[in-house]
Amino acid sequence: MFKKFSKEDIHTRTKVKTSVQRSLKSKLVEQFPKLEEVIDELLPKKTELQIIKCSDKIQLYAVGDEVLFFQKFEELIPTLRFVHKYPEAFPTIQIDRGAIKFVLSGANIMCPGLTSSGAALPEAPGLAQDSIVVVNAENKENALAIGKLLMSTEDIKSINKGHGVETIHHLGDCLWNFSLV
Amino acid sequence: MLKKVVYCGVCSLPPEYCEFTGKIRRCKVWLHEHDQELFAQLYGDDKEDVDGVAARLGQSSIGEEREEQLEKKLQKLQAREESKEQRELARKLSSRVVIRREARTKRKCMVVVAGLEVFEIDMKKLAKTFASKFATGCSVSKNVEKKEEVVVQGDIADEVEAYIHALLEEKGMKGVKVEQIDAAKKKKKTPTTTTPPPS
């Protein structure tokens, strides 16, 4: 999604009304319930949230010059810098060491990379298809990508073939290197 | 409550992922300078060994054969990345900045700064600073070769040159040539040659 992305893709940049900001916050908490305890720390009431509309109907939400989360369709997707601050709040999957290289260059994650001994998937009942997951790596502390499940985690375990996760945002991509100033 | 993650100053990733960017040598030096604790944690305690393979990073379960393959590929990537950097640096050092003074109407002239695009300088921002610094109009325009250049109104070539020198030095590009060309006739000198000396 952010293979090619630069300042030229920005259309408008406006302040978000506080009422909208409130509803955004509650939506975030709804999506990631564990965020509730820290949401006020991440997004204090007085901060000025900005919405940045970009091409391809992507919307970024930023505080100051840091993009915190973005939206393509319905769901809000946190950026990696946001995830790094409070990783516990997000559903996480783990890939093995062999896959890191490919994910960092933007590839989708294949099922075997999620089921081998170095990888980890949440226990049953697992996560449903299309949910947003944070991708962590073996022996690493911080997340390296944000993705969307192309099949449910149970399916990944049983089928174990083909694309498992679509990589949306990864370390070192254009959104990661993107700065508003 | 919130975690604070250190990001590598060279490749901007969390330091544990530096090995995958192919810039690990410079990343290690940076980390050693900035966060000794994390450095020891990631790369072990041998502080001098910058080239060595990161032993602790390598713990994994993907089997020796695949690990070896991965290592090879990473080394290749590193070599490629390094040669790319060197090429880039050479290109930067061999290129030059041209400051041209051009005539407008009558006694007015403007200064055109070309050749900055190699140095990753934000032209628009530079134009803005010029405009406020010298209190003139300043803009970015495209020249005949479709390359961007900064156009400053007013006869301030020397001041602009001094500023650009400082800017390049800040970026660690001190050896870059900055050349000044005068495309406009200097009006002050012409009368002394044409008019006969009073006698």
Describe this structure in words.
The complex is a heterodimer of chains A (181) and B (199). Chain A is an alpha+beta fold. Chain A is 24% helix and 28% strand. Chain A has 2 domains: 7-85, Sulfate adenylyltransferase, CATH 3.10.400; 87-174, Roll (Sulfate adenylyltransferase), CATH 3.10.400.20. Chain A contains 6 helices and 10 strands; from the N terminus they run E-H-H-E-E-E-E-H-E-H-E-H-E-E-H-E. In chain A, strand 4 (66-71) and strand 5 (76-78) form a beta hairpin. The longest helix of chain A is centred in the N-terminal third of the chain and has 14 residues, at 18-31. Chain B folds into 2 domains: 1-58, no CATH class; 93-182, Translation Initiation Factor Eif1. Chain B is an alpha+beta fold. In chain B, helix 1 (24-34) packs across helix 2 (36-43). A 5-stranded mixed beta sheet of chain B has the order 3-4-2-1-5. Chain B is elongated. Chain A binds chain B through residues 37-38, 41-42, 81, 84-87, 96-98, 100-101, 104, 116-118, 138-142, 144, 171-172, 176-177, and chain B through 1-5, 11-14, 16-17, 20-21, 57, 59-62, 66-67, 70, 73-74.
The span between the termini of chain B is: 88 Å
Can you identify the CATH class of the largest domain in chain B? Answer: Alpha Beta
What's the tally of helices of chain A?
A: 6
- Beta percentage of chain A is 25-35%
Which radius of gyration of chain B do the C-alpha atoms yield? 26 Å
CATH H level, superfamily name of the largest domain in chain B: SUI1-like domain
Shape of chain A: globular
The biggest beta sheet of chain A is recorded as: 5 strands, antiparallel
Overall number of structural domains of chain B: 2
Question: Beta-sheet strand percentage of chain B?
Answer: 15-25%
Named CATH architecture of the largest domain in chain A: Roll
* Secondary-structure element order of chain A, N to C: EHHEEEEHEHEHEEHE
- Global structural class of chain A: alpha+beta
Number of strands of chain A: 10
Family (chain A): Belongs to the TMA20 family.
Subcellular location (chain A): Cytoplasm
Protein name (chain A): Translation machinery-associated protein 20
GO molecular function (chain A): RNA binding
